[in-house]
Design goal:
- The protein has 122 residues and is of the alpha+beta class.
- It contains four helices and five strands, in the order βαααββαββ.
- It has a single domain, classed as Ribosomal Protein L22, Chain A.
- The strands form two sheets. It has a three-stranded antiparallel β-sheet. A two-stranded antiparallel sheet has the order 2-3.
């Protein structure tokens, strides 16, 4: 299990300061589209960031230079149940640990966003 809490203002400042450079480095195009479709965009970007970190923690690791932030993707396209999709090094790590699916819980306020991810085997 991994969990993470993020300050929304921190993400809002990074977006304001670095714009598309930051967004493209951290979020997939699908994540950007999903967040921009929401009323409170910064809160959703913060929740996605929290989910990426919680997803990595559920595998017993944290982000490092061998992976891209976009290697961990949060798919919210089904609106009912967000899911983690892994690429690259995190996908290989999940395979090595036998993790085949993830349960994701997200919450946010105007101040904080949090995510908890359970990595499940089989």
């Amino acid at each position: 299990m991994g969990t993470q809490i993020v300050e929304v203002v921190r993400i809002r400042q990074l977006i304001d300061r670095h714009a598309e450079v930051f967004l493209d480095r951290v979020f997939t195009q699908a994540e950007q589209t999903q967040c921009r479709e929401r009323l409170r965009t910064a809160e959703h970007f913060a929740a996605v960031w929290a989910a990426k970190e919680a997803g990595l923690r559920s595998l017993g690791t944290m982000w490092n230079r061998t992976m891209a932030w976009t290697d961990v993707e949060l798919d919210c396209s089904q609106r009912s149940e967000p899911r983690i999709v892994l690429h690259g090094a995190p996908a290989a790590l999940a395979r090595s640990k036998g993790a085949t699916r993830f349960v994701v819980a997200l919450a946010h306020t105007r101040v904080h966003a949090t995510a908890t991810v359970l990595a499940l085997r089989g």
